[in-house]
Design goal:
By secondary structure, this protein is an alpha+beta fold. The chain has two domains: 75 residues, Roll (Ubiquitin-like (UB roll)); 115 residues, Alpha Horseshoe (Serine Threonine Protein Phosphatase 5, Tetratricopeptide repeat). Helix content is 39%, strand content 15%. It has a five-stranded mixed β-sheet. A two-stranded antiparallel ribbon has the order 6-7. A hairpin with a 4-residue loop joins strand 1 and strand 2. Helix 5 runs antiparallel to helix 6. The N and C termini lie far apart (50 Å). Pfam families: Ank_2 (PF12796). Keywords: ANK repeat, Repeat. It comes from Symbiodinium necroappetens. This is INVS protein.
Length: 199
Amino acid sequence: MMLPVHLLSGEEVAVVPLEEVVRDDSCTVRHLKRYLCSAHGLPPRFQQRILHDGAVLDDETCCFRLATPFSVQLILLPFVEATPEKIDHFVEAARKGESSEVERHLLLPQDPDLIPQRCQARALYQASCDGHAAVVSLLLEAKADKDAPYHHLGNSRTPLLAACEKGHKEVVRLLLDGGADHHAACWDFGTPLTAASFE
């Protein structure tokens, strides 16, 4: 079954073969958004809104159950302006492993790479350092900069180095699968592999 996707202007973005998105009949709007991001280079699902007959569809809506006409519209949202307090709250939620709160911020949509004034460590670094795989997965899906360093006391650490240093294997796997630079080094631990060997 083919699903045409158009912008509100009428421009066709894609014609999606739903059977390729998910191999069964459970293709949801969330699956569709992920497919549009990976196969068509569109922004992450957090910045997409899918409409059918003028109504925004929930991410859990089954695409196979849409009424005719069988087509959807796509709205791409820019990041919202975030106050320093909202940035601090977002990064703190990542540090604590509060995946539902992190996802709520990402769906505003909020830039995943905002730097808090208080600690200067981004959300991906905080979640990686504390071993929160679910949050790391969300942030990588939101296209957070996987190699953005945290500068502290004249040193720079990447999320991968922090996860290796703390022995968070699942987070390390997620970051490597996401293309994190395993050669990025800092002066006291060297590369992520060196840091992992201390654990």
